Amino acid sequence: MGEEITALELLQQVDIFQGIPDLILEELLETAETHAFEKGDPIFREGTPGSGMFLVIGGAVELTKAVTRGSGQRLALLDRGQIFGELSLFDDLPRSAGATAFVTCSLLFFPAGPFHDLLDDRRAFAPQLMRNLVKKLALRLRDADEEIRELSRAGAH
Fold first, then answer.
1. Does residue 31 lie within any of the structural domains?
2. What domain range includes position 139?
3. Residue 156 located in a structural domain
4. pTM exceeds cut of 0.85
5. Is residue 36 a part of any domain in this protein?
6. Considering its fold, how many domains does the chain have in total?
7. Is residue 75 within 8 Å of residue 63, measured between CB atoms?
8. Which site in 23, 73, 122, 131 is 20 to 30 Å from 65, CA atoms measured?
């Protein structure tokens, strides 16, 4: 199955945590909760309140967007080291997509409250983390733009 690594080593590999000192990452891990899901289990549903961000430790998670009643469009299939649900760190709006365990998976959950408290307490690292998160969100927005462009082209034919 893949090599075993510590939670700290995993965070060190995650793009949004690049440039963040290990001491801060360890403090962040102290706020995290570990959750396990079986294949097909909902992690959260689209439209429900968001309360934090997830990081895939192992397994895979499918993100979907409802398109018609009873069916959804796959947005992404995420595996180890990928984050999702990060929008709930910035707004109080409902989840913009649903997340389901694609296979048995384990996740770290970073609740928004303790995450913001750590940002307030450790202001020196906050700008780097915010730049990393904005960069990640910008990449996702660009991907969504490209997907819309492709759907538009397909509809024009």
1. yes
2. 7-149
3. no
4. yes
5. yes
6. 1
7. yes
8. 131
- Beta-ladder partners of 71: 68
Structure tokens at 102: 């694609």
Interval 51-65 mean pLDDT:
95
How far apart are alpha carbons 12 and 20 in whole angstroms?
A: 8
Residue 152 predicted with pLDDT over 80: no
DSSP string over 10-49 = HHHHSGGGTT--HHHHHHHHHH-EEEEE-TT-EEE-TTSB
Using CA atoms, how far residue 156 sits from 75, 150, 153, in Å, is 22, 10, 5
Question: Residue 60 falls within a domain, yes or no?
Answer: yes
- CA 106 to chain CA mean position, Å: 13
Mean pLDDT of 11-19: 93
**How far apart are alpha carbons 61 and 29 in whole angstroms?**
21
Residue 104 maps to which CATH number? 2.60.120.10
CB atoms near residue 156 (< 10 Å): 6
pLDDT on residue 111: 96
Classify 89 as helix, strand or coil: helix
Q: Which two structure tokens, joined as six digits, stand for 4? A: 């075993």
pLDDT tens digits, 110-137: 999 999 999 899 988 889 988 998 898 8
* Helix 112-121 × helix 22-31 angle, to 10°: 150
Enclosing H/E stretch for 65: strand 61-68
